[in-house]
From TrEMBL:
SUPFAM superfamilies: Homeodomain-like, Tetracyclin repressor-like, C-terminal domain. Residues 12-72 form the HTH tetR-type domain. Residues 35-54 bind DNA. Keywords: DNA-binding, Transcription, Transcription regulation. Gene3D superfamilies: Homeodomain-like, Tetracycline Repressor, domain 2. This is TetR/AcrR family transcriptional regulator. The keyword Transcription regulation applies. One of its GO terms (molecular function) is transcription cis-regulatory region binding.
Length: 195
């Protein structure tokens, strides 16, 4: 979401109405057919109100989508880094494989020809997910479960790259066994050696 630098502070009720309208329209008519005008009409606000808080359609739609989706993907903290990574990757993958999660592929596709969508997707979806995984890795390092020389960014790429490859390229199934195998294989490269 915008940091709120422009205009007056957001009215939470109005903000929620806008986010809900964007989310509902995303599933009713698809990203390509959404306009700021349609969001404003559905939310009962002016276009100017939306533009005060968001730079454009992609940002408000992404925020509406993630506002609903983030509640389904909590960051686990079981006390064991492998279990946390497995739970995080499994929750994300189950979400991506759901009807609601399939919107992600639409947004990735739209981002190939629309720089605003690509930026909104990276800043509002990809970077927060990477930050969550980084928190899990940092906890594992602090607890001595992971090597001190771990490259967290490379590990995140190795872990989540195959998931998005299947999601957007091969169309192969994203099931729990696949996720457990990916997490196990990538984890072997960063785990602290047993004494």
């Amino acid at each position: 979401m915008n940091s709120g630098k422009r205009g007056r502070p957001r009215n939470l009720e109005t903000q929620q109405a806008i986010l809900q309208a964007a989310y509902d329209l995303l599933f009713e008519i698809g990203f390509a057919d959404i306009t700021v005008e349609k969001i404003a009409e559905r939310a009962g606000v002016s276009k100017a109100t939306i533009y005060k808080w968001w730079p454009g359609k992609a940002a408000v739609v992404m925020d509406g989508y993630l506002s609903a989706a983030s509640q389904r993907m909590p960051v686990p903290d079981t006390g064991f880094v492998f279990d946390d990574l497995l739970a995080h990757a499994t929750n994300l993958t189950r979400f991506l494989a759901s009807a609601e999660g399939r919107v992600i592929t639409e947004l990735i596709g739209a981002g190939q020809t629309d720089a605003g969508v690509a930026e909104a997707f990276r800043s509002r979806y990809v970077q927060p997910r990477r930050k969550e995984t980084r928190q899990i890795i940092d906890r594992g390092i602090q607890r001595g479960e992971l090597r001190l020389d771990v490259n967290p960014d490379l590990f995140i790429d190795l872990l989540y790259g195959p998931i998005f490859y299947r999601l957007t390229m091969t169309g192969e199934e994203l099931d729990d066994d696949f996720i457990k195998n990916i997490v196990s294989l990538t984890f072997q490269g960063i785990a602290q050696a047993k004494p």
